[in-house]
């Protein structure tokens, strides 16, 4: 019975049709499946009873003997028809077939007289509505227009274009509209071709551009574009979005009309017609939109399934189309209503049935429908049921233990208990959908279960099933009980200093607070025992400013959440405003006008200071350069002086003075009458007496010519560390060869004298 051939399914479904007045109409319906199968028909959802005018044939098709758009009693044979097939396993409904009467209205646009110069373009148009779409042909002088003439273009919507007009094109034109309902003729219009072809330049101009069209896939679209100008403009087409138009199914009619055959959804877009002057960039454009609709079709069909009692059945139905189709589910031909255990998800693409039982066994249909058409697919749910399964567990009770714990107890089933291998407790928040349910398994010898980790002040539903190796029992009665309430949890608290007298208390809402009614805020000076408060705040408030505070003391701020069960634990924070006051004192507010004036004055002073500084730097560089150069010259003379053997004062013709590490000599050493250095003057200039250490390390005095001298190294001394040592006139004693001179040797390092 579960093979494919056993499925109740349509082989042929009724299709949309256009019926002719007073003519017979047949709507086909063919079904396969396990017999017996009963077929019935509906029109606009109402059952059709056999009558003289409409009755069902032996093969299940519906026959309408004389179709009438409007009957004498005001009824009509127009409408939406569907057939229903039913067997032992369920009921199936076909797609809806839309039946319309063939009609034709009068012409609402007739061709108009036209006078066009030779070589120009003429355009005539007829427009008429009808079902099916009328076919429009053109006659010239009561004869059909020769469509083999390439200068004559007939468009499907009743347009005649004539390009490169000649004198023989003059005549009387009219159009003829034909469909299964009628044949109608338009009024006549005269075309007059005047003058000869003009050579005067004319800018390109589009006489008629493309219209906005809405069509269905596989139909043909004709986008009209007719242009004039001298020289004759070149007509080209493009898409506004820049995508290529392509070449497959594309054809140009006449001098610029675009025809697209076998339309697809990808052809939808805005098309631009451009009339270009040859050899230039001069152009004129016109645009029109093309919308291609696609009837609903299935990407994924629902599949028939078999499931044991108590399990979950899921059907998936995915459809596509343009515009996107709407999906509706039927159960045995009736609109499926959702409930606690029947849910629709993903825009009705997924049907879930939880905890199935034998009443859920049926044929489920997915109907996909949009403005371009509808389709249907079906699947059967078979509920498996084994004989000898346990009856439902008895006496299910639930008792509240705490705010997070409930104890559930039950009694064993009344029948077929020998094969029970265990029980399953089904738990769900009463407010949650069925798919949020979870289970806990219990051994066959246990008849109570402590359910923990529940939420306070929340209602929960419980039911039990007994399981055997062959399946589960039916569900027990459902019991609902609520957990006890508890006070809210501690809120998080943050303190922000606004100014020297104000702080802002901030906190974050949290699910851990539970069902609280609001908050209580307290604050006090830490050295006082009495709080200010409570300040009662609503549950949606998350901040509060505390003002008029004393900046010299520390404050304690306390926040707690409360509900009908009492106050929760509080969060405490301490805050000091002293640092804010100190920052204000250290950084007083600025006087902007005064600062602006000071800034102007400061800027002038900075510029002057920069000039002075640069000048000083230049003078310093020059001073250092010339001073360093002079020091080098003086050092050279000192080296020459000190490296020469000295003679007694009485024997010298020239007296030398060591000053700042240099020797000052007479300009001419050979001048015996030169002036001697006045020692009194030196003593006046350098009054400080040399220390004993300096005497011991002093400059070497005169040596006996016969006594060899030691080589002396020169140390450059700063001027403030230099002193003059006057030689004694006593005769020098003879020193042994190689002994040190009587005068102290020069110091090899700087002396700390001054």
UniProtKB/TrEMBL annotation:
Compositional bias of kind Basic and acidic residues: 663-673
Disordered: annotated segments: 643-754
Biased composition (Polar residues): 643-657
Gene3D superfamilies given in the database record: Immunoglobulins (2.60.40.10)
Main location: membrane
Membrane topology (UniProt): Single-pass membrane protein
Fibronectin type-III domain location: 392-486, 487-583
InterPro entries: FN3_dom, FN3_sf, Ig-like_dom, Ig-like_dom_sf, Ig-like_fold, Ig_I-set, Ig_sub, Ig_sub2
Domain of life: Eukaryota
Compositionally biased tracts (Low complexity): 741-754
Transmembrane segments annotated in the record for this chain: 606-626
Keywords: Disulfide bond, Glycoprotein, Immunoglobulin domain, Membrane, Repeat, Signal, Transmembrane, Transmembrane helix
Family (UniProt): Belongs to the immunoglobulin superfamily. DCC family.
Name of the featured protein: Immunoglobulin superfamily DCC subclass member 3
């Amino acid at each position: 019975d579960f093979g494919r051939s056993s499925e109740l399914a349509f082989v042929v479904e009724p299709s949309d049709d256009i019926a002719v007045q007073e003519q017979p109409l047949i709507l086909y319906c063919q079904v396969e499946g396990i017999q017996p199968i009963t077929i019935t028909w509906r029109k606009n959802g109402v059952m059709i009873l056999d009558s003289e005018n409409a009755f069902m044939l032996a093969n299940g098709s519906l026959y309408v003997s004389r179709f009438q758009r409007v009957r004498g009693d005001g009824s009509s044979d127009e409408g939406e028809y569907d057939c229903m097939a039913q067997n032992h396993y369920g009921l199936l409904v076909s797609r809806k077939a839309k039946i319309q009467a063939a009609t034709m209205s009068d012409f609402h646009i007739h061709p108009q007289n036209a006078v066009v110069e030779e070589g120009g373009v003429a355009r005539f148009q007829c427009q008429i509505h009808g079902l099916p779409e009328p076919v429009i042909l053109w006659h010239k002088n009561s004869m059909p227009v020769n469509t083999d003439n390439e200068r004559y273009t007939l468009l499907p919507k009743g347009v005649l274009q004539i390009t490169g007009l000649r004198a023989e094109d003059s005549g009387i034109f009219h159009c003829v509209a034909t469909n299964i309902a009628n044949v109608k003729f338009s009024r006549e219009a005269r075309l007059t071709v005047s003058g000869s072809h003009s050579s005067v330049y004319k800018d390109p101009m589009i006489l008629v551009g493309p219209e906005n069209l809405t069509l269905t896939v596989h139909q043909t679209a004709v986008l009209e574009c007719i242009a004039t100008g001298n020289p004759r403009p070149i007509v080209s087409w493009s898409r506004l979005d820049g995508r290529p138009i392509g070449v497959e199914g594309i054809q140009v009619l006449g001098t610029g009309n675009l025809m697209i055959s076998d339309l697809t959804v990808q052809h939808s877009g805005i098309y631009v017609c451009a009339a270009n002057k040859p050899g230039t960039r001069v152009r004129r454009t016109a645009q029109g939109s093309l919308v291609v609709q696609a009837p609903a079709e299935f990407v994924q069909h629902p599949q028939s399934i078999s499931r044991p009692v108590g399990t979950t059945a899921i059907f998936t139905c995915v459809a596509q189309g343009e515009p996107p189709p709407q999906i509706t589910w039927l159960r045995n031909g009736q609109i499926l209503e959702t409930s606690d255990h029947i849910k629709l998800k993903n825009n009705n693409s997924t049907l879930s049935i939880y905890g199935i039982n034998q009443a859920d066994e049926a044929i489920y249909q997915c109907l996909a429908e949009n403005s371009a058409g509808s389709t249907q697919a079906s699947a059967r749910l078979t509920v498996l049921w084994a004989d000898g399964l346990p009856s439902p567990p008895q006496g299910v009770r639930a008792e509240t233990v705490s705010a997070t714990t409930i104890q559930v107890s039950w009694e064993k089933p009344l029948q077929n208990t020998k094969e029970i291998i265990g029980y399953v407790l089904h738990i769900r928040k009463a407010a949650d959908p069925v798919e949020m349910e979870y289970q806990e398994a219990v051994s066959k010898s246990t008849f109570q279960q402590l359910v923990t980790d529940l939420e306070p002040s929340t209602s929960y539903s419980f039911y039990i099933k007994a399981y055997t190796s062959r399946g589960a029992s039916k569900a027990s009665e459902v019991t609902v009980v609520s957990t006890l309430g508890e006070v809210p949890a501690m809120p998080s608290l943050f303190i922000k200093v606004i100014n020297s007298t104000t702080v802002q208390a901030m906190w974050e809402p949290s699910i851990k607070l539970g069902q609280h009614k609001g908050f209580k805020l307290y604050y006090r000076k830490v050295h006082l025992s009495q709080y200010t408060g409570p300040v009662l705040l609503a549950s949606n408030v998350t901040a509060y400013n505390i003002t008029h505070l004393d900046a010299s003391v520390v404050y304690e701020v306390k926040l707690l959440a409360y509900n009908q069960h009492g106050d929760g634990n509080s969060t405490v924070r301490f805050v000091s405003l002293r640092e804010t006051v100190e920052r204000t004192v250290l950084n007083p507010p600025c006087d902007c006008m005064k600062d602006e004036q000071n800034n102007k004055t400061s800027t002038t002073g900075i510029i002057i200071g920069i000039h002075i500084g640069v000048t000083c730097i230049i003078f310093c560089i020059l001073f250092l350069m010339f001073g360093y150069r002079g020091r080098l010259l003086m050092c050279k003379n000192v080296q020459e002086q000190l490296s020469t053997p000295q003679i007694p004062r009485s024997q010298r013709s020239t007296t030398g003075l060591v000053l700042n590490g240099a020797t000052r000599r007479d300009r001419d050493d050979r001048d015996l009458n030169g002036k001697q250095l006045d020692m009194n003057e030196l003593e006046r200039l350098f009054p400080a007496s040399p220390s004993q250490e300096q005497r011991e390390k002093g400059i070497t005095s005169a040596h006996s010519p016969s006594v060899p001298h030691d080589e002396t190294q020169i140390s450059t001394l700063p001027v403030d560390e230099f002193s003059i040592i006057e030689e004694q006139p006593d005769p020098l004693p003879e020193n042994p060869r190689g002994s040190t001179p009587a005068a102290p040797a020069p110091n090899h390092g700087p002396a700390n004298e001054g």
